[in-house]
Design a protein that fits this description.
The structure is a homodimer. Helices cover about 40% and strands about 25% of the residues of chain A. By secondary structure, chain A is of the alpha/beta class. Chains A, B: This is Glucokinase.
Chain lengths: ~325, ~325
Amino acid sequence: MKYLVGMDVGGTNIVCGLLDGEGRLLEKIKRPTEAHLGSEHVLEAIAQTVKTLISSRQADTRQVLAVGVGSPGLVDPEQGITLFAGNLGWHRVEVAKQLSGKLNLPVFVDNDVRMYVFGEAITGAGKGYDHVLGITLGTGVGAAVVVRGQVYYGGGFMAGELGHMRMEGEQTTCACGMRGCLETVASATGIVRQVREAVAQGKQSVLGTWFPTANLSGLTAADVSKAYDSGDRVAREVLDHTGRVLGRALAYAVTLFSPDAVVIGGGVAEAGERLLAPMREELQRSVYQGYWSRLAIRTAHWPDDAGVIGSALYAKQKVEEA
Amino acid sequence: MKYLVGMDVGGTNIVCGLLDGEGRLLEKIKRPTEAHLGSEHVLEAIAQTVKTLISSRQADTRQVLAVGVGSPGLVDPEQGITLFAGNLGWHRVEVAKQLSGKLNLPVFVDNDVRMYVFGEAITGAGKGYDHVLGITLGTGVGAAVVVRGQVYYGGGFMAGELGHMRMEGEQTTCACGMRGCLETVASATGIVRQVREAVAQGKQSVLGTWFPTANLSGLTAADVSKAYDSGDRVAREVLDHTGRVLGRALAYAVTLFSPDAVVIGGGVAEAGERLLAPMREELQRSVYQGYWSRLAIRTAHWPDDAGVIGSALYAKQKVEEA
């Protein structure tokens, strides 16, 4: 039997999966990233996790076709290097070469969002569509485009930064240095910020009661959904506004890329229709109807695993191309 | 000697060019489209023009490698059909098949903007760049992306409709049925409309003196540039505003496609720095600096001929692929 290994390296955890040769997930291990101990430590821990995973199936490393790694930040997949990943403190880490040396296996690295969208495009909610635009709404906002099974990279491997489109009327300073980026609104942090600002302005919200501490410490985007369901007006206004801003940004992406399907994943997507209904409404209003009428909008099929599955399938594609 | 034929079919004129096998333009003929006489008439006229062009060089049809046609409207290049072209009154016209029958030559058809950008990308201002975003500012606003010599089509061959991105704060109804599309601002008609509205609102402009008739009848975008140079405040405000709205739209396209070069063509681009200076300023302000620092912004190298050259080279590429 042949295997694939796929991996999603996050700022907090690494999720490492063993898949069969067709990309079906058999088993996964989650472990802390411990990025503060340095890239050498993280890569060694990844290698050990891969070995543990393989031996847990009484398998042999030689049965593994390829290893795929989804890394945060700016990645050069051709060279196999993570050029910059702020949340890991990585700068030009040769992920593919180093891991390949430790595992004696072909290793491929690409950006985590691209791998997530690749997984959804090949075998998830985008399956069967030629042009898939995938977005991830989490701590930040990411996006990628997959055309007939090939990632669209753009110059400098920098295409698809939907999260850093400046949205009219938004003023919050973004981590990137600009103001009003989509990511300052349509992310978990953006939603929490909007609620905090509303409460600070004196708006009445059940969230102020649930989180009586200064600045609603501990509040998450999931809590905002709960408040919405209890009829809270601030929660509704925030998710409504967030959905509409997201819809406007998506309208630009749809008009420029003309995808057949838009796949929406990431933790914030769990808000479901509370967020997606206003998003769709605004998107429909903001694109030529020729796009709208042919567009499928789907939530992720593998919300937790698309990154692991996608990186494994990506590695398989690369090995087969070579 | 081997030849290529390229063609730009517009609402008013058809420009037909004879090129050598490398895509160097040798000769061209311009003739009225006469679209009101129907597609059969137009295609027959095109075929006659191609024959005239070939015989003027004492050449033989058999020396022509391929014929490329840039058609306005929505084109399916795989089937060789112009699906819809409003300004020609065409609906599902089988351009490639019909012309191929008349000429006994391989004929390929694609959208005129894509062919223009293809020409600039391969042999014009975008030459040497892997990822080229080209825009044409004329009666309308068109755009296309060419990646390593391949056009990016998107689903339904509908990618790159920069002209139909709805711009915040703009309210003019567009021919597409939406309101506030970029095309209602950053086109020749958009510039003329803005001047007319300013004068109608009682703003003093030398253009009101130059065009004393009702609604400044006869006014063109070129006149607005002349007024700008004479120090006219309305002309400056209009070109300034137009440049800034264009810069904002381009910021979205740059963030999503990450081009290495942006090439700007079309008649309105003749406004030069009057338009491009505010455009660049707004673009720089609206994109992550990582894009800005690696981006080349160029005006078209073949402002008049890129469509003819591009369609000829596109036809050559298709013949070689087959």
